[in-house]
Specification:
It comes from Pseudonocardia autotrophica. With 600 residues, the chain is α/β, with parallel strands linked by helices. Helix content is 60%, strand content 10%. The longest helix is centred in the first third of the chain and has 50 residues. It binds adenosine-5'-triphosphate.
């Protein structure tokens, strides 16, 4: 294999594209927060400047107007800066979401195809949709709230200490108490939060299982029992939640009490009265604390209220980062173009993990115009063997080549152009029937699409749909499993791929359709290399080569007749299947033996 490079997991700094915007949010939020403190300071300063008038002394009117002017500028400036901060926050969020989604989609396109088989589409959707949306809280709100929660108390305290330090200390008491109580609450909650997440996950699974399995479960008369499982999980969650809320309620109430405006005001007024009574502080110097002290804890409370969203956002960020750090499939640095369509496996071994090898030392050749069939007991590795060809996974040992080029040296798009694939599970998209058929070859014209549909024996059924080829799957086109299978066969046929892999492609078809489709596929195999996985041996009796796979090794190879005379696994399987077929014979489609298979 010529030099391939292992693409390193991308350096994950989700917020890099919006770093300058985050800087702008911080700056604007700081100006906005300062702007809310300035008018309060102005009120206090105004009172202090006008105080001499109470004692009949002259007032510095110039200073009065200067204070009014500062307040008059600060207030609208504060509103404008706060608006700007929130606006930039949401613009940054939109940019971040677009960037992260693009990165995720790019990654999804570079992950090995086998990766998708191991993940549910639900878990991918959670990351691409829910987790990315949850990031909104960070750029859209948290940065702004955090700046306000720091700037407002700090500026207020600086002013308070500058005017009267004893009252400033009194103002610190509710602030420090709030921080201490919150810290204690969060420390106690750490374990509970983990248990909360586990409970929610168990409840979600129970709900999904209950809803998904309801039809099967009910049809077997187990509805009540499964419902009981869901109800038990709900009860468990509620019991835990009640207990947890009971524990935190006391602390939460204490925080509410300590920060309640009436309580803070009473505390500051009491402290001020005592200091004035002892002659330590002048009455006018109590005023700053009364005006500014009330607003010190509000930004912290705001942070506390949004703590759960913040936690969710941080978890979502970690989940997105982990997702982006997954190793992508290595790509060739100098891609090679296959010449011809000979498929060759040479000494291939593979395991899904390090503990167990699923395929051992597989060697085979599949030439254009020939059909190679893979048969063998369930779990012997047939699908795995076939899926290594389009690089669902990469081999551990040996080499797979297409047209003389190691598949790892062929660019992904070029490889997929060589190989048409029909899997056991038919995947159709919620789009028109026509677009479903030409999914892998969007430039195919209507005639080519219809030819493929005719060959796959699905054309007549499509014509009976409300809008024919323009019917949308899932909307006005509801196809059975077998019909969907034929649609994916048409999709494989419409591609020009010179290599076709059919993994139990006709398994979901009734015997008539199976025979018809296999006839069509056989006709198309004339110039293609065909690799067919089959459970039902009678469908591949005419294959040029039949490979018998057992325990991940090719134990026999030859034509149907050669393998029957070899009296090995193939013959045993054949005899067993024929006995079953004799007990429930399938309709005869053609008088020719083997005509109903991928037979030649
Ligand atoms: P069947 O005829 O039932 O479809 P098969 O012959 O095609 O079976 P494979 O599906 O290739 O067999 O499976 C071979 C072995 O690999 C089995 O033991 C299976 O459990 C294991 N296996 C298959 N897919 C995975 C996977 N994604 N991760 C881990 N092990 C897997």
């Amino acid at each position: 294999m010529s030099g391939t490079v292992t693409s390193p997991a991308p350096a994950v700094d989700l917020f890099a594209p919006v770093r300058s915007r985050i800087g702008a949010i911080v700056g604007l939020a700081a100006v906005g927060a300062a702007g809310t403190v300035v008018p309060l300071v102005a009120v206090v300063e105004l009172a202090r400047t006008l105080w001499p008038a109470v004692e009949g002394l002259p007032v510095d009117t110039g200073r009065v107007w200067a204070i009014v002017a500062v307040a008059a500028v600060a207030l609208p400036a504060s509103f404008a800066a706060t608006w700007g901060s929130i606006m930039v926050g949401h613009l940054a969020d939109a940019r971040l979401q677009r960037d992260v989604r693009t990165r995720l989609l790019d990654l999804l396109g570079r992950l090995p195809l086998g990766w998708f088989g191991r993940r549910s589409s639900g878990s991918v959707k959670k990351t691409v949709e829910n987790d990315v949306s949850a990031l909104h809280h960070i750029t859209g709100h948290a940065v702004h709230d955090l700046v306000v929660a720091v700037v407002v108390p700090v500026l207020s305290l600086v002013y308070l200490f500058a005017t009267e330090w004893r009252m400033a200390l009194a103002c610190l008491v509710p602030l420090v108490l709030t921080i201490v109580l919150y810290a204690a609450m969060m420390a106690g909650s750490r374990d509970q939060l983990v248990r909360y997440d586990e409970s929610v996950e168990r409840l979600n699974s129970a709900t999904v299982e209950f809803v998904h399995g309801i039809a099967v479960v009910k049809s077997f008369g187990q509805g009540r029992r499964r419902h009981a499982g869901y109800a038990t999980e709900t009860d468990r969650f509620l019991r835990f939640y009640r207990g947890w809320m009971g524990e935190t309620a006391t602390m939460q109430t204490l925080v509410e009490v300590v920060t309640a405006p009436a309580v803070v005001l009473a505390w500051l007024a009491g402290s001020g009265a005592w200091l004035v009574g002892t002659g330590t502080v002048a009455p006018v110097d109590v005023l700053p604390a009364l005006v500014l002290g009330l607003g010190l804890t509000a930004p912290l409370l705001q942070l506390g209220y949004t703590g759960q969203s913040m936690r969710g956002a941080l978890q979502a960020r970690d989940s997105v980062v982990r997702f982006l750090q997954q190793p992508v499939q290595p790509q060739p640095d100098r891609p090679v173009q296959p010449v011809g369509s000979v498929v060759e496996y040479a000494g291939v071994s593979f395991g899904y993990d390090d503990t167990r090898r699923v395929l051992h030392d597989i060697s085979l050749t599949c030439r254009p115009g020939t059909v190679t069939a893979l048969v063998g007991p369930s779990g012997s590795g047939k699908s795995t063997l076939a899926r290594l060809l389009p690089r669902f996974h990469d081999v551990d040992d040996g080499r797979i080549s297409v047209g003389g080029a190691d598949v790892r040296d062929v660019a992904t798009a070029a490889l997929y152009a060589e190989i048409g694939f029909v899997l056991q599970d038919a995947h159709v998209l919620r789009t028109t029937v026509r677009d479903n058929i030409r999914l892998t070859r969007p430039d195919a014209d209507d005639e080519q699409v219809e030819q493929a549909a005719v060959a796959a024996r699905i054309h007549d059924r499509i014509l009976r749909l409300p809008r024919g080829y323009d019917s949308v799957i899932g909307a006005d086109a509801h196809l059975s499993g077998g019909e969907q299978q034929r649609l994916t066969i048409a999709r494989a046929l419409v591609t020009d791929a010179p290599i076709l892999v059919l993994d139990e492609a006709t398994a979901a078809l009734d015997p008539d359709s199976e025979a018809a489709v296999q006839d069509a596929v056989s006709a198309l195999a004339v110039e293609r290399s065909l690799l067919v996985i089959a459970h039902r041996l009678h469908t591949v009796t005419g294959a040029d080569t039949i490979l018998v796979l057992d325990g991940g090794r090719i134990t026999e190879r030859g034509t149907h007749d050669e393998l029957l005379s070899a009296c090995g696994t193939y013959r045993d399987l054949w005899v067993r299947q024929e006995r079953v077929r004799e007990r429930s014979p399938e309709p005869v489609v053609s008088g020719e033996p083997g005509a109903a298979g991928v037979n030649r």
